[in-house]
Design brief:
The chain contains 5 helices and 5 strands; from the N terminus they run αβααββββαα. It has 148 residues and is of the alpha+beta class. The longest helix is centred in the last third of the chain and has 17 residues. It starts with a helix and ends in a 9-residue tail after the last helix.
């Protein structure tokens, strides 16, 4: 499982990587022991300046949100447009990874539901600069509780 994730992560280091937007719940960041070398490195990695990767934090102050209906993370994959037709080469796809299986959902209603959830998270998450400051504060051992 780790090997597969590392291979997927390598896609983000290509000369022309795909754009990647991620929103991380504050709880996931707070669970890390920043004195632990690996956790420290993970937080540092989130702060790397990679223009096509946008890491944002969903703080506790965001309140109840659409992401609470899932049992973990999800990804919405949007594909590039065909240069001849302008239409996406593939329809959007939702990927959900669980302990025992991975699900790929491509039915329009399923995709729309996850897109609505993403819009809610996007609206509530800190912007990129505030997220970077938030993560930096955790690395420095400071507690910050910004408002959205």
């Amino acid at each position: 499982m780790v090997n597969t994730r590392m291979k997927r992560q390598a896609l983000l280091s290509r000369p022309t990587p795909p754009s990647y937007e991620v929103i991380i719940c504050e709880a996931a960041l707070r669970r890390l022991d920043v004195s632990d070398e690996m956790a420290h490195e993970q937080l540092q990695r989130l702060l790397e300046d990679r223009p096509r990767i946008n890491v944002r934090v969903l703080p506790f102050s965001a309140g109840i949100h659409g992401g609470m209906v899932t049992c973990g993370s999800f990804e919405i994959m949007n594909f590039p447009a065909d240069p001849y037709t302008g239409a996406p080469i593939e329809p959007s796809l939702v990927y959900v990874d669980t302990l025992t299986a991975a699900f790929y959902m491509n039915k329009p209603d399923e995709v729309r539901g996850y897109e609505a959830m993403w819009r809610d998270l996007d609206r509530r998450a800190l912007d990129r600069p505030a997220s970077r400051e938030f993560i930096s504060d955790i690395l420095k051992g400071r507690s910050s509780c910004p408002t959205t």
